[in-house]
Amino acid sequence: MSIGRFIGAVVLSYVLFAILYMIGGMFVYADAMATNAALMRSMDDPFIAFSHIGHLFQTMVLVWIFFSGFDTADVKKGAFFGLMVGVFMAGSNMVWMAGLNLNTAPLVPMIINDLVAFSAVGAVLAKVFGKPAATD
């Protein structure tokens, strides 16, 4: 994997995640997310930067895993790869939501958003950056 290919895939994936999570959080399930708004940090809080850095780290790992063991141009396989990572993320959300005393209204929409967003990113990684299967 070349560094340029890796960086390009990370940037594209990060932007796609930002768009998909913004659509989900601000439009699709905004009411559910609002149930815990009093517990959330203000977007003006400097600590919010760590959220963006954390998402960048997650995206870098996702792209590295894709290129290291799943590098395919098959969009369906890419979407399945993303779906499986989305299931992992959904499980993580279930764990921390169960451990914190929060309103659980956002849980199902968050899980759906994870599954959709990661499937879409996996499909895009395959389409744009995946290596075609070797032919005989």
Briefly characterize the structure.
It is built from 5 helices and no strands. The protein is an all-alpha fold and 136 residues long. Helix 1 (3-28) packs antiparallel against helix 5.
Major beta-sheet overview: none
Number of strand segments: 0
User: How much of the sequence is in beta strands?
Assistant: under 5%
Q: How many helices in DSSP terms?
A: 5
Instruction: State the distance separating the first and last CA atoms.
Output: 23 Å
Order of helices and strands: HHHHH
Question: Any idea what the radius of gyration is?
Answer: 16 Å
Secondary-structure class: mainly alpha
Overall mean pLDDT: 91
Number of domains: 1
**Helical content (DSSP H or I, runs of 4+):** over 70%
Task: Describe the global form.
Answer: globular
What low-confidence regions span 5 or more consecutive residues with pLDDT below 50?
none
Description:
The chain has 136 residues and is mostly helical. The chain has one domain. Helix content is 75%, strand content 0%. The chain has helices spanning 3-28, 30-34, 48-70, 75-99, 107-129. α1 packs across α3. The mean pLDDT is 91.
Task: Write the topology of this structure.
Blueprint (H helix, E strand, L loop, with lengths): L2 H26 L1 H5 L13 H23 L4 H25 L7 H23 L7
Keywords: Membrane, Transmembrane, Transmembrane helix
